[in-house]
Specification:
This protein is α/β, with parallel strands linked by helices and 745 residues long. It has 20 helices and 30 strands.
Length: 745
C-alpha cells in the first residue's frame, strides 16, 4: 500500500454489501473485501471523499488511523494516547467518540468511548496545553474505536453522521426507509439500468417520498451527498479542502436538469404527499417527479412501455394495522396483475402473510434490515408465466395455520387464563392486567389487557419477545401467525384493538423512546383513558414500548396511597406520574415529581388533570434526577447546619425512587446503572427524608442485589413479594421493592 493510500471501512445496511463493493470499486477503491454489514477497502483520500459524496448505499466511511492489541481498558487507553492527535484534531474544536464491537474486558460501549476520549484529551492537553470539548451532535471530528476480541482499530469517521442523512428529509411518514436503504433497494431492482432506457418509475404507496426522490436522484445523476452541509472530515486537520471542492464541482456539473423518465409517487394520504413534495423540493428534484393522490387499487401506468414498480407498504406492526396492511397488499397485487403486465416490481415486506396476499410469485427474495426490522425485498417479473400466485393454495395455507395444533393449544391456554384472571381482577378492581406471559415457552409473548374507562372497550397490547438466534426464523413467524390468528376470536376483541410490539433487550433509555417514526403531535394523541384503583390514566399502546402505566407496579402504587396522608411526597424518575396521582388521592399534602423527559412530564400533567390535581400543590419539574438529588441533598445539609427552613432544602415524608435499570440518555450526564448507582441514590434520597418518613425503592433489574451497606445504615424491609400483583405471580422477579427508613424509629 503506497503512502498516499489509506485503509477504510464503509458500513452498509445488512444485505447490501455487494452493491456497496461495486460502488467503491467505481470510486477507485482497491483490495475490496465484503463483510455482512461492511466493506473493507484501500484507496486514496479522493476515494474516501468520493464514497462520502457519491455512495448511495453506504452508512458511514471510516478512515483507519491505528490498529493494535489491548487486553484491557488501561492498555487501550495507553495505546490510544500514543497517537499524535494534534495532527488530526484542533483542540479548539469539538470531538465525539464511539466504541463498537466485542471486547473481553471492555464490555460497555460507553465506557470504551470514555476511555478513548480520555486518551485523546490527555494527549492533546500534554502536547498543546488545551483539550477539545465533547459534542455528541455534529462534532468537528468524530473518532471511532472497534473491538474484535483484543484487536482494536481506531478510525476517523469521514461521514460524521449517517450518510443516509442526505439533507432533504426533515420529517418521515409511516414505515419510513432510510435513504441509503431505499437507494440500495433501487440498485438491487436495477433501476439505474431501467432509468437509462427511459423506463417509467412508480411507487404506488410512496409515503414521504423517499423511494421516488432517490429514484429521481439516480435518474438525474445527482450525487446523494451533494446537499449535505456537514461531513466528519470538514473539521479534520488532514482535510484537503481543494480536493473536496473539486469533487463537489464535478458532481454539480453532472446533474441532469431534466430526465426522460416518468417518475411518479402516489398515496392515499394527503399529509404524506405534502411531506413528499417538501422533501422533493429540498432534494432539488421536485421538477422531475409527479406526486398524485390515489388509492393503491386505482393507480395506472402512464406509458405503454414496461417500467418499475418499487414500494415499501406499511408493515402493520399492530394487528389492526396488520389487517389493513394485508388488505393493502391484496389490493396492490390485484392491481399489478391486471394493469401492469410485463413490468418489474420490487416490494418490501416484513410479514409473510401480507406478502402472500399479493398473490405474486417472486423470482428473487433478498433479506434486508430496515433499522431493527427484518424485511424481505420481493422481486417480481409481472410478465413471467406463473407470476400470479394460486389463490386456492394460499387460502388452504391460511386455513391450515389457523387450525394447527399449536394454535389450538395456545387458544385453550389463553381462554383459561382469561377466565381465571377475570375473577381476580374484579376482586382487585383492576381493569388493566396481564393475561399471558410466555406461559408456553414456544409462544414467547406477553399479552396485556386494557379496558377503556368510558366504554369498557377492551384493547390488547401483544408484545413478542425477540427470539434468540437459535430459533428458526420461519418457525418464529409461523408461531406469530398462530398467536395473531387466535387472539380476536378467543378473547372477543376487535382486530383493530390489538396492538403488536416486538420486545427485546433495550439499551440506554430506549424503553422510553418512540417505537414508531410516524410521530403523532404528542404522546397522548393516540392515548386511551383507563381506570385503576378508582383513578384515571392515559395509556398509549402504539408509540412506545411501555404504555405509560407499569402494570406490575399496581400494588406499589396502592402502597404509596396508603402512606401518603398528610405527607410531602417526592417522586423521582416519575415517568407519567401515576405514583403521584395515587399519593395525591391518598391525601398527600404536596407532591413534587421529577423526570428528565418533557414528553413524559406533559403526559403526567395530563394524568394530573384527569384526576383533578391542583398544579400549584402538585408540581412537575424537569431535571436529571441524580443531579437534582446531589443539589437538593447539598442544600438540605447546609440548611440543617444553619437551622434554615428554606423550601429548596425542605424534607419529604414519603419518597418514591424508581430509576431505570440503565440509561445513557444524551440529555443526562454520564451513565446510570441501577446496580452500580443505587447506593448513592438511596443515600442522597435519605438526606431528604424527614424523621419518621419512608422511602420506597423499586427496580425492574432482573439480577438486582441490594448493597449490604444500606441494611447496615438503614432499616430495610423487602416488600417484593407483597407487591407482586395476581397477574404476575408466574414471574416473581418482575421487580424488587424495598421500604427504607431511618434506624431505631
Amino acid at each position: 500500500m503506497s503512502a498516499a493510500e489509506h485503509a477504510y471501512v464503509a458500513t452498509v445496511p445488512r444485505g447490501l454489501s455487494d452493491l456497496l463493493a461495486r460502488e467503491l470499486e467505481s470510486f477507485g477503491a482497491s483490495q475490496v473485501r465484503e463483510h455482512s454489514a461492511a466493506v473493507l477497502f484501500t484507496g486514496t483520500l479522493e476515494s474516501g471523499y468520493r464514497a462520502c459524496l457519491w455512495s448511495r448505499s453506504a452508512s458511514r466511511v471510516l478512515l483507519q488511523l491505528a490498529a493494535f492489541n489491548a487486553a484491557n481498558a488501561d492498555e487501550f487507553y495507553a495505546h490510544a494516547r500514543t497517537i499524535d492527535w494534534s495532527a488530526h484534531i484542533d483542540p479548539a474544536h469539538s470531538i465525539a467518540c464511539e466504541f463498537t464491537g466485542t471486547h473481553p474486558t471492555i464490555t460497555h460501549s460507553h465506557f470504551g468511548a470514555l476511555r478513548l476520549k480520555d486518551a485523546i484529551c490527555d494527549r492533546l492537553r500534554e502536547d498543546t496545553g488545551a483539550r477539545p470539548d465533547v459534542e455528541l451532535s455534529r462534532p468537528a471530528v468524530r473518532l471511532h474505536a472497534h473491538a474484535n476480541g483484543v484487536q482494536l482499530t481506531l478510525s476517523l469517521d469521514l461521514a460524521g453522521e449517517g450518510l443516509h442523512r442526505r439533507g432533504y428529509r426533515t420529517e418521515a411518514g409511516a414505515a419510513p426507509l432510510r435513504e441509503n436503504l431505499a437507494a440500495g433497494v433501487l440498485l438491487r431492482a436495477r433501476w439505474p439500468e431501467a432509468a437509462a432506457r427511459g423506463a417509467e418509475f412508480l411507487d404506488p404507496m410512496c409515503g414521504s417520498g423517499t423511494l421516488v426522490i432517490e429514484a429521481a436522484m439516480i435518474a438525474a445523476d445527482r450525487a446523494p451527498g451533494l446537499l449535505r452541509e456537514y461531513f466528519g472530515f470538514l473539521g479534520w486537520k488532514g482535510h484537503d479542502a481543494a480536493l473536496w471542492q473539486r469533487l463537489k464541482s464535478e458532481a454539480a456539473d453532472r446533474v441532469l436538469p431534466q430526465v426522460v423518465n416518468v417518475i411518479r409517487g402516489s398515496d392515499i394520504d394527503q399529509r404524506a404527499l405534502t411531506l413528499a413534495a417538501a422533501n422533493a423540493q429540498r432534494a432539488g428534484v421536485a421538477a422531475l417527479i409527479r406526486l398524485e393522490r390515489h388509492a393503491v387499487e386505482n393507480v395506472r401506468p402512464l406509458t405503454r412501455e414496461p417500467g418499475l414498480i418499487c414500494t415499501n407498504p406499511p408493515y402493520g406492526e399492530r394487528l389492526g394495522d396488520a389487517a389493513q396492511a394485508h388488505t393493502s397488499f391484496a389490493e396492490l397485487g390485484a392491481n399489478l396483475r391486471e394493469h401492469f403486465a410485463a413490468w418489474d416490481a420490487a416490494i418490501l415486506s416484513a410479514d409473510a402473510d401480507s406478502a402472500r396476499a399479493l398473490r405474486l410469485r417472486s423470482y428473487r427474495v433478498h433479506e434486508l434490515w430496515n433499522g431493527a426490522i427484518a424485511v424481505r425485498l420481493l422481486r417480481v417479473d409481472l410478465g413471467a408465466p406463473g407470476a400470479a400466485d394460486d389463490e386456492a393454495r394460499r387460502q388452504q395455507q391460511q386455513a391450515e395455520a389457523a387450525a394447527s395444533p399449536g394454535a389450538l393449544m395456545f387458544t385453550n391456554r389463553l381462554v383459561k387464563n382469561a377466565k381465571r384472571l377475570a375473577k381476580l381482577a374484579r376482586r382487585a378492581q383492576a381493569s388493566c392486567y396481564r393475561l399471558y406471559d410466555a406461559d408456553m415457552p414456544e409462544y414467547s409473548f406477553a399479552i396485556d389487557r386494557y379496558a377503556v374507562a368510558a366504554t369498557g372497550t377492551v384493547h390488547l397490547q401483544v408484545q413478542e419477545y425477540a427470539a434468540p438466534a437459535s430459533v428458526d426464523v420461519d418457525a418464529a413467524r409461523r408461531r406469530r401467525r398462530e398467536v395473531l390468528s387466535s387472539l380476536s376470536g378467543a378473547l372477543q376483541v376487535a382486530p383493530e384493538h390489538i396492538h403488536l410490539r416486538l420486545r427485546q433487550r433495550q439499551s440506554g433509555s430506549d424503553q422510553y423512546q418512540r417505537q414508531s417514526d410516524a410521530a403523532p403531535s404528542s404522546p397522548q394523541s393516540r392515548a386511551l383513558t383507563v381506570e385503576e384503583g378508582g383513578l384515571k390514566f392515559l395509556v398509549n399502546l402504539d408509540d412506545y414500548l411501555d404504555t405509560g402505566l407499569f402494570l406490575d407496579h399496581r400494588l406499589i402504587r396502592a402502597r404509596l396511597r396508603e402512606r401518603a396522608r398528610g405527607a410531602r411526597f417526592l417522586n423521582l424518575f416519575c415517568y407519567t406520574g401515576s405514583g403521584t396521582v395515587y399519593a395525591a388521592s391518598g391525601g398527600a399534602r404536596s407532591t413534587l415529581s421529577i423526570d428528565l423527559s418533557n414528553s413524559y412530564l406533559d403526559w403526567a400533567g395530563q394524568n394530573f388533570a384527569l384526576n383533578g390535581l391542583d398544579p400549584t400543590q402538585h408540581r412537575l419539574q424537569r431535571a436529571d434526577c441524580r443531579e437534582w438529588l446531589h443539589a437538593a441533598a447539598g442544600q438540605a445539609g447546609k440548611a440543617g447546619m444553619a437551622g434554615s427552613a428554606d423550601e429548596a432544602a425542605a424534607s419529604f415524608d414519603l419518597i418514591f425512587l424508581d430509576p431505570p435499570t440503565f440509561s445513557n440518555s444524551k440529555r443526562m450526564q454520564g451513565v446510570l446503572d441501577v446496580q452500580r448507582d443505587h447506593l448513592e441514590m438511596i443515600d442522597l434520597s435519605m438526606r431528604l427524608l424527614a424523621p419518621g418518613g419512608l422511602l420506597l425503592f423499586s427496580t425492574n433489574a432482573q439480577r438486582f442485589r441490594l448493597d449490604p451497606a444500606i441494611e447496615q445504615r438503614r432499616q430495610v424491609k423487602d416488600i417484593s413479594a407483597q407487591t407482586l400483583p395476581f397477574d404476575f405471580e408466574r414471574n416473581p422477579r418482575i421487580h424488587r421493592c424495598y421500604e427504607i427508613s431511618w434506624l431505631h424509629e
